[in-house]
Amino acid sequence: MTASLQNRRILLIISGGIAAYKSLDLIRRLREAGARVRCVLTKGGAQFVTPLSVAALSEEQVYSDLWALTDENQMGHIRLSRESDLVVVAPASANIIARMAEGLADDLAGTLLLATDKPVMIAPAMNGQMWQHAATQANIATLEKRGIIRIDPAHGLMACGEEGTGRMAEVAAIVTAITAHFAKPGPLSGKRALVTSGPTFEPIDPVRFIGNRSSGKQGHALAEALRDRGAETILISGPTHLPDPVGIRTLHVQTAAEMLAACESALPVDIAICAAAVADWRPAETTTEKQKKGGKAPTLTLVENPDILATLAKARNNRPRIVIGFAAETNDVLAHATEKLKRKNCDWLLANEVGTDKTFDQDDNQVTCLRRTADGSVASEDWPRMSKQDVARQLADAVVSFLK
Fold this sequence. Notes:
Helices cover 35% and strands 24% of the residues. It has 2 domains: 2-182, Flavin prenyltransferase-like (Rossmann fold, 3-Layer(aba) Sandwich), CATH 3.40.50; 192-286 and 296-403, Rossmann fold, CATH 3.40.50. The protein has an 8-stranded mixed β-sheet with strand order 13-12-9-14-17-18-20-21, with helices on both faces. Strands 3-2-1-4-5-6 form a 6-stranded parallel β-sheet, with helices on both faces. A hairpin with a 5-residue loop joins strand 7 and strand 8. With 404 residues, the chain is of the alpha/beta class. Helix 6 (94-102) crosses helix 9 (134-145) and helix 11 crosses helix 15. It is globular, with a radius of gyration of 24 Å.
């Protein structure tokens, strides 16, 4: 990390919000990584941190006033906006996001953001309802169309006492995103990858569903491993308790049908890895009201869900260059996985044994990697038990070798 940020020039804009206190730690971490950090403190930001604290940690002059004659003589807002390698807005409040979308330039931060010719990265932080509001989401969509880089907020308890998605990403995650921005091109640079992760929930009524025990740990680790090798990665995740990986476009779905639609909308991609534990069936009918006990258990009629792996592996113009599936089995693992590889027409398949104490929600995994060979046969390789992160790295490295 240190080498990739050495001598990088970061212009940090600190807007209003309780998360502004994290900006002090962000300055410290960036400087430890070798970056030079200049700071702009908005009027709102100055309600939470002082210019003296920011100046002490950055060891640079702090800028706040568009009309400061001294600042304009010494630097000038145009020059300040250009003499940086990256502009970071952290925290990015709902207000400054709206102002950026509208192109307002009536204060120093707004003017700098309009005048800069460098990439801009934002770390949103606000109340959960404010983050979910249609206006905020429309503003975010506008900024992303302009190339703004977004570090998604986290879910948790906020200063207002409410719980939801809106907490600014942790400082370590922001530093990781900044480091990744400056990282040298990896072996998968220029490639697009799609990863599915987690379970799917198939609703019975508004409160009950058919689901499974998948934690999403393996799928999320795979997405991060592909990202770290330079691939533009899209993660399509069913319901999990995991944070969205930094630097990865993450789409959240509930059902198998929603996951398939998201996968097809992401095409074309070079790499598709289906690690999600998709429910095989769903109720034929769902009720809009909770089903009550009546002395007799209801009868569920199930219908088969779409087969996402087989759909992506089907021969067609936009078929990914490599399609990889997972097989979670409780017995005869190799036999069932081999049959699944052939039936679904995928290129590789990672098979693992699952159960109440195996794989699901565990931090490690043991897989057998099956590959379709040129003559139509199937070759298998047992991998030793290792962490799910190491499984992801080994698989990503194998994909790199395949695509050379």
